[in-house]
Design a protein that fits this description.
This protein is of the alpha+beta class. The protein has a domain at 195-325: ApbE-like domains (T-fold), CATH 3.10.520.10. Helices cover 34% and strands 29% of the residues. A hairpin with a 2-residue loop joins strand 1 (18-25) and strand 2. The chain is globular, with a radius of gyration of 21 Å. Bound molecules: adenosine-5'-diphosphate and magnesium ion. Adenosine-5'-diphosphate (ADP) binds at residues 97-99, 101, 105, 110, 151, 153-154, 157, 182, 223, 227-228, 239-241, 243, 267, 270-271, 275.
Length: 325
């Protein structure tokens, strides 16, 4: 009896041990903190590495690479699921999000990191196959019509986060913070019952923070112009592109963070609302209201959607909160 009680206590305290792991995947550094069994960390790592090897546009063995080459392919449940979700989000965010943007991303050198400013002719030609309507799903087959090619980069980390959250729930983990390189999932609350605090990176100093969001069971995705970019003739060209013009976005925004229940939705919205611009993005949030929004502008203003006013805390003296909508 005593032995059984002791075992129970040991098991219980073991599942509350803080575990920290790091993974290098999806072209970024990821870090996970959770309270639970050691084995769960291995499963988290495996899950994200598997997704990377399915979804990468550059790995020659990935499903997306071979789909882009052949134009039609039977794919795994994950690739199918994410492509279906991505297409629906492109329909919703038409003109701002398009996961067939790969030829344009390529012609600016963001894929092979040989950055260059392409000619107008090159951009026009790359834009011809940018059309999410060319994505067809039938059974487990994806077909890309008219030479379109897929780049799920705007939503892949969000999907990895959704899978990570599901995996932790299935494993009985009640408390975790999973950082998929800018897309952060808060699972439950901290072990002491208080809310997780998710930092919003300072675009001018990405190791520092402008403030934080207090939350539980939410996924916060941030898209920033500071993440991947190049400069030429003192102009900055960022890796978020306008699917209508084929040009890197150059508006008043320096970063967009979206808080919602779904990683894919947060990730898609953070990219698309960056393209939309501040005013339209805030209007869109008011219209939909199933997500929260934090927009940082180049002139160091923080615009927070009304639903997040109580959960966002500004910590940087360099920024000011704006009340306008
Ligand atoms: P990150 O992956 O760096 O966190 P995002 O989630 O904003 O940033 O995704 C940016 C990536 O998505 C780009 O690297 C590019 O591959 C792709 N992309 C860029 N612009 C768009 C767009 N308007 N619609 C869909 N995908 C885009
Ligand atoms: Mg995104």
């Amino acid at each position: 009896m005593v032995f059984m009680a002791l075992t129970a206590v040991l098991l219980c305290s073991c599942s509350l041990l803080k575990r920290e792991i790091r993974v290098d995947a999806m072209d970024t550094f990821m870090s996970f903190e959770y309270y639970g069994d050691e084995a769960v960390g291995g499963r988290l790592k495996k899950s994200v590495r598997e997704l990377d090897s399915l979804l990468s546009v550059t790995k020659r063995k990935s499903e997306i690479f071979s789909l882009n080459k052949s134009g039609s392919k039977r794919v795994s449940a994950d690739t199918l699921d994410l492509t279906g979700q991505a297409k629906a989000l492109c329909v919703e965010l038409s003109g701002f999000l398009d996961v067939t943007i790969l030829p344009v991303v390529e012609c600016w050198g963001f894929i092979d990191q040989r950055y260059k400013v392409p000619s107008k002719k090159e951009i026009r030609s790359a834009l011809k196959s940018v059309a999410f309507n060319n994505i067809e799903l039938s059974g487990s087959r994806i077909t890309l019509k008219n030479g379109s090619r897929l780049d799920l980069g705007a939503v892949a980390k969000g999907y990895a986060a959704d899978k990570g959250v599901g995996l932790l729930k299935d494993s009985g983990v009640k408390s975790a913070i999973l950082n998929y390189g800018g897309t952060v999932a808060a699972v439950g609350s901290k072990p002491d019952g208080t809310l997780w605090k998710i930092g919003i990176a300072d675009p001018d100093n990405p190791s520092g923070y402008v403030g934080f969001v207090s939350c539980k069971d939410k996924i916060v995705a941030t898209s920033g112009g500071y993440e991947r970019y190049f400069e030429k003739n003192s102009r900055r060209y960022i890796h978020i592109l306008d699917p209508k013009t084929g040009f890197p976005v150059d508006n008043e925004i320096s970063s967009v963070s979206v808080v919602s229940d779904s990683g894919v939705r947060s990730d898609a919205l953070s990219t698309a609302l960056f393209v939309m611009g501040r005013e339209k993005a805030l209007e869109y949030q008011l219209k939909k209201s199933d997500f929260g929004l934090i927009v940082l502008t180049k002139d160091k203003k923080v615009c927070v959607s009304p639903d997040l006013r109580d959960s966002f805390t500004l910590t940087s003296g360099d920024y000011t909160l704006t009340g306008e909508q």
